Amino acid sequence: MLNKLLKYDLKYMIKNMSAFYILAIFFSLTTRILFSINQTVIIKIIGQISVGCMFAMIVNILINTMIRSWVRFRDSIYKDEAYLTHTLPVTKNNIYDSKFIQTLIFFILGFIIIVFCLFITYYTKERWLLLKNYIDSITIGLNINTFLFVVGMLSVVFLEVFNAIQCGFLGIILGYKQNNSTIGFSITFGFIAYLLSQSIVLLLVFITGLFNSNIMDLFRSNILLTDSSFKLLVILAIILYLFIIGLMNIICKKEFNKGVNIE
Looking at residue 222, what is its pLDDT? Predict the structure, then answer.
């Protein structure tokens, strides 16, 4: 039954997000074409408009993935659609898992579309070598593999934003337990959950710093990290975010299973 729930959630997201994906790719293609032809004044103006629209679509992909995930969560659990959702022969854990997986899928898809659009718009051999040399200058100093560096940094950013989305889920669950001002309470609880999760990450990094002087230097000065400390910090951040996402998943399900007030 989880598969059927997920199917409907994915259809909802595809319906609402496909326009942004298509437009982002369209404007990246038009920008690529306009940047590659003879640069007259009119062509330059149109090219800048096109690249502006492309970046606007990229921002919309990120923002709407978050907002639509929250809206879908709220509408299917607490609004009119909830009367159907809660009559299905599924557990509340299945309902939450469907929303969690749907968000994860479209967040990954959004990242892929964004990278693809930036590649179409800006890729040239010269720019690629320039970017590679810039990253290499960082990784050589840190004595770390370039691929692992890029994957590590992207993973930390991805997990941090995904954690923020799940904090929103917890905010909605707690907010809709209130008798009034549910949206206001949802935003407030979600923001508090996000601040707490970030504080836990910072606290645990600080505790690690008690055993690693180079990590502690982040709190005491502005000196650069050593290669071993940087690797430790990235690995620690990934582990901590995975732990917090898993813990918040358990908390969300626990609170969700306590009951739902449908509007």
Answer: 64
Residues 212 and 36: their CA atoms lie apart, in Å, by 51
Q: How far apart are CA 5 and CA 109, in angstroms?
A: 19
Residue 56 to residue 12: CA distance in whole angstroms: 22
- 257 sits in which H/E element: none
The pLDDT of residue 64: 92
Q: Which of 248, 245, 252 is nearest to 93 (CA)?
A: 252
What's the pTM? 0.83
Residues 103, 65: Cα–Cα separation, whole Å: 8
How far apart, in whole angstroms, are the C-alpha atoms of residue 251 and residue 213?
34
Secondary structure letter of residue 86 according to DSSP: T
Query: Cα separation of 229 and 165, whole Å?
Result: 29
Reading the block at residue 51, the tokens are 């690249």
Question: Rounded CA gap, 248 and 51, in Å?
Answer: 38
Q: How far apart are CA 203 and CA 133, in angstroms?
A: 35
User: Measured between alpha carbons, how far is residue 147 from residues 76, 165, 234 in Å?
Assistant: 40, 27, 14
For residues 229 and 195, the answer to whether their CB atoms sit within 8 Å is no
Contact residues for 80 (Cβ-Cβ < 8 A; gap 6+): none
